[in-house]
Amino acid sequence: MARTNAFLHPAAKPVLFVASLLPFAWLFYGAATDNLGANPQEYLVRATGDWTLRFLCLTLAVTPLRVLAGQPALARFRRMLGLFTYFYVVLHFLSYSWFDQGFDLPEIARDIAKRPFILVGFTAFVLLTPLALTSFNRAVKWLGARRWQALHKLVYVIAVLGILHFFWMRSGKQDFAEVAVYAVIVVVLLGWRAARRAGVSPQPAATTARGAPSASRPPATRARG
Predict the structure, then answer these.
(1) Which stretches of the chain score pLDDT less than 50?
(2) How far apart are CA 29 and CA 72, in angstroms?
(3) Would you tell me how many other CB atoms lie within 10 Å of the CB of residue 188?
């Protein structure tokens, strides 16, 4: 009960918001003080991409944690985590567009078309955009629950594309250790969902939390956890 009360505390969301901004603040400070290594531009591009993938994994982890821990109040953090995923992917794309291409739109278009790993990453970014735009309660009402849920299932495709983008990016240096970690996390999270739909995963604990979103109502979140 103590954990449930903590998740429902009025300060819980502000604390998560501030914590989610810390990577951005750290990168901004590092850039402002020239403390990002020998190649700060490349560091920013890669770091924003890494944080995008981390927040995507956190967003996908909300539902398994909510169900397995019997903590329905966790669902109230899913939308914020999903929107921070989009925030960091926008920073990632802007960093690439600025530092690698100088905001030269024709050159950006040519680069996306000729390099598969950038095409895959850009596709994931494009697919994330309608999810971010429909992350609010009004969008659920406007689209209807069924169509909203169908749209937000794109997050599973996005997760796979994100891992593929990361894999191709690291393949040039034959550095796959970190890729493997994220791949395992995504496979476990998506595998849990597949098992649950097949009826073989553990059922939610019989725990309720006052004020938690109803299980029958689509959560107002960018990426369904």
Answers:
(1) 1-4, 201, 205-217, 219-225
(2) 36
(3) 13
